[in-house]
Specification:
This protein has 478 residues and is of the alpha+beta class. It has helices at residues 7-15, 39-49, 80-83, 95-107, 149-152, 177-190, 193-202, 206-216, 221-228, 253-263, 267-285, 311-314, 344-359, 367-374, 378-390, 458-473; strands at residues 3-4, 23-31, 58-61, 71-74, 84-93, 117-125, 129-137, 244-252, 296-303, 330-337, 399-404, 412-413, 416-424, 433-440, 443-451. It has 16 helices and 15 strands. The longest helix is centred in the middle third of the chain and has 19 residues, at 267-285.
């Protein structure tokens, strides 16, 4: 019997349109080894390991008349060369050119008649580098068994140590239309409540979302007041076009940890405070009115689990997002970022106070536990945060910020060392900016996915993140 999409997975297919493609991805930069790192190597590596991600050979099949949710079926004409593609920049390719290419690739919807993923090998980068850009539809990320293709091609050693599958794959016969209808009828008889579930999922609105969020926050009065007040208006909430811009920034994890130790906060608090400072300067650069009381509201998805007294202390090291292995319990924290505050230390303590009020209503999952359980799958983990954001009204927040911990050791693909990893988090309707943050091998990497029309100056904001990091480091007594 084919696997049926869950109600929320199906909703991402139904709600997708040309202005809000529902895929998540990443831009990974590798140093080319002496043995080379070309398209044939990447194609062969992915081909050998596709057995580890069987969903990547499946496509979505609609039930006739849409009498039930779609099902996953094996793609009878699966063509790996369609999904693994090759691009090149004019040598020597710059980071700006890579960002422009990533923005154009992320702007395009995935083909729903094929498995919902793509990988691009980008050659021609300067300094002997190559890049791999991945796209994975959120319908494929169920939070329990989903593993991103970017995870299975990475190894902890330059010499491939991961399992390779050379078995010949044969697609299972695709069910007939009549078979799908019979299965849908049987499901309706066995689970009549599922029809109501589908209707509720399709008609969910801001009222239902607020109710769920209120329960998740455990009745914290300050958080509830935040949620009931619309987000401040401003340039980050604008009609979403069908094109994107992409920019990046980076920092050293040790620097952020030093700030954390100095002020007794978390690394996630430091990241949010850095973004607050950058957004403040960006607003000022645009000529926006910024008073001492001005705020921007961020949605910060955080994984929580009840009854773990040690999790809260572990959370002091860095932020974490959910993975199904730890229960997939997600709280979507709405945090008012104090962009009107000029003092970086005061900004940090205000952010820390707001996050602490939220986290006390549930125990956040330890970052190191997530890394051990999930390996390194930023697209999967960032997608879980984006899924939460897409269930909220665009009137409730200005910007989505997802922060995913990664391993602090080098990773390799076909012998090439990954040196940077920038997440690409999709935009929700009427959102101009999403920020994904990932830590890896001593670095912290910011990926800024922005609407092309609403944020033509996203590269200015990215540069201001670096300035805000330096400003925050300046608060540490040496």
């Amino acid at each position: 019997m084919p696997d049926r999409l869950s109600a929320i997975d199906a909703s991402f297919l139904y709600l997708e349109d040309h202005t809000t493609p529902m895929h998540v991805g990443g831009v990974a930069v590798f140093r080319r080894p002496r043995s080379g790192f070309d398209y044939d190597k990447v194609l062969a590596l992915i081909d050998r390991r596709l057995a580890l991600v069987p969903r990547y050979r499946q496509r979505v099949r609609q039930v006739p008349g849409r009498l039930a949710r779609p099902v996953w079926v094996d793609d009878q004409d699966f063509d790996i060369t369609y999904h693994v593609r090759r691009s090149a920049l004019p040598k020597p390719g710059s980071d700006a050119q890579l960002h422009e290419l990533a923005a154009r690739l992320m702007s395009r919807k995935l083909d729903h008649t094929r498995p919902l993923w793509e990988v691009y090998l980008v050659e021609g980068l300067s300094k002997n580098r190559v890049a791999v850009i991945t796209k994975t539809h959120q319908a494929m990320v169920d939070g329990i068994a989903a593993i991103d293709i970017g995870q299975v091609i990475l190894d902890v050693e330059a010499r491939s140590a991961g399992p390779d599958q050379d078995d010949l794959w044969m697609p299972r016969p695709e069910p007939s239309a009549s078979g799908l209808l019979l299965e849908a009828a049987a499901d309706a008889v066995q689970r009549p409540g599922e029809i109501v579930e589908n209707a509720r999922a399709a008609m969910a609105d801001a009222t239902a979302t607020l109710h769920k969020m209120t329960r998740a926050l455990g009745g914290v009065a300050s958080a509830l007041r935040t949620a009931l007040v619309p987000a401040p208006s401003g340039p980050l909430n604008a009609p979403t076009s069908n094109q994107r811009r992409f920019a990046t920034a980076s920092a050293r994890l040790d620097d952020l940890r030093a700030v954390r130790r100095e002020h007794g906060t978390t690394v996630n608090d430091v990241v949010l405070a850095v973004l607050t400072g950058a957004l403040r300067n960006w607003l000022l650069s645009r000529g926006e009115v910024v008073s001492p009381s001005t705020t921007l509201r961020a949605m910060v998805p955080v994984s929580v689990r009840p009854g773990d007294s040690e999790a809260g202390e572990a959370y002091r090291d860095t932020a974490s997002l959910p993975v199904g292995s730890v229960g997939n319990r997600v709280s979507a924290f709405l945090v008012d970022l104090p962009v009107g505050e000029a003092n970086p230390t005061v900004r940090l303590h205000q952010v820390s106070h707001a996050m602490r009020a939220h986290s006390e209503s549930g125990q956040p999952v330890a970052a190191d536990a997530l890394v051990k359980l999930s390996g390194f799958a930023p697209p999967t983990l960032h997608a879980l945060g984006a899924r939460v954001a897409n269930t909220f009204s665009d009137r409730l927040f200005n910007v989505l910020v997802t922060n995913v911990p990664g391993p602090q050791v080098p990773l390799y693909a076909a012998g090439a060392r990954m040196v940077e990893m920038f997440p690409v988090v999709p935009l929700a309707k009427n959102q101009a900016l999403s920020i994904g943050v990932t830590s890896y091998d001593g670095g912290v990497y910011f990926g800024l996915n922005a609407d092309r029309d609403a944020m033509p100056d996203v590269d200015v904001l990215a540069a201001m993140i670096g300035e805000a990091v330096d400003e925050m480091i300046g608060t540490v007594d040496t």
